[in-house]
Design brief:
Order of helices and strands: HHHHHH
Number of helices: 6
Number of domains: 1
Radius of gyration: 20 Å
Shape: flat
Strand content: under 5%
Helix content: over 70%
Number of strands: 0
Length: about 220
């Protein structure tokens, strides 16, 4: 069982992480680089500087890919562990549903109050934002669990209230939203980041569930 959990998480993290990292390099990173042009004045660079920048870009992509794979593997392991504790057969379909819940709790719900931000975008107090983000993740996860694991109408309503509560309180906002970064670029980055998170959780959860479904029974 334990070996199957780690093997399944590793397979899901490697495959899903590589795809997510490639998506980020092709879609999200160019938007970040474009925003940095607005944040800092663009300068004309010589050939040597261009080669240095290319080397820096390779290092950035490599480290980002490595971090994404590690996080994806950890996410898959936690997801499978929670499913084991919850009981029931672990399948690709069931894992996908849990992955959808993880996407909503970790990415979509927090993005309502704190959308993914580009460099140069004003932001509120860092500690306050971190606390609000964590509270939103916990509230959303708890609310989803109450809604889908309980059949009582009162419990479902309470779950919805728990999910909405952090947004009623509101996330910390900056004093001013003025920025040199175009609003359209910021919106494009937020959408691209959420799409990348959706791709990651879709692949990681499905692959982890399918892998455990294949390897799990032989380990028990």
């Amino acid at each position: 069982m334990i070996r199957a959990l780690f093997l399944s998480a590793a397979a899901a993290g490697l495959a899903g992480g590589l795809v997510a990292a490639a998506y980020q390099a092709l879609v999200a990173t160019p938007l970040i680089l474009e925003a940095e042009i607005f944040e800092h004045a663009a300068e004309i660079a010589g050939a040597a500087a261009t080669h240095a920048a290319e080397g820096a870009d390779f290092g950035r992509h490599f480290l980002t890919s490595l971090a994404t794979i590690v996080l994806a593997t950890g996410g898959a392991l936690i997801l499978l562990g929670l499913m084991v504790l919850d009981g029931g057969a672990i399948t690709a379909k069931r894992a996908l549903l849990w992955g959808a819940g993880a996407f909503v709790a970790l990415a979509l719900a927090p993005a309502v109050g704190l959308p993914p931000e580009l460099p140069g975008i004003p932001a509120g107090d860092l500690a306050g934002r971190q606390i609000w983000w964590l509270a939103t993740v916990i509230a959303t996860a708890l609310g989803l669990w109450l809604i889908f694991s309980r059949s009582s109408p009162a419990t479902i309503v309470f779950g919805l209230v728990v999910i909405v509560l952090p947004h009623v309180i509101g996330a910390p906002q900056p004093v001013s939203h003025d920025s040199d970064v175009p609003a359209g670029l910021a919106a494009q980055f937020a959408a691209a980041s959420l799409a990348g998170s959706l791709i990651l959780w879709h692949l990681v959860s499905t692959i982890a569930g399918a892998a455990f479904q294949r390897w799990g029974p032989s380990e028990t």
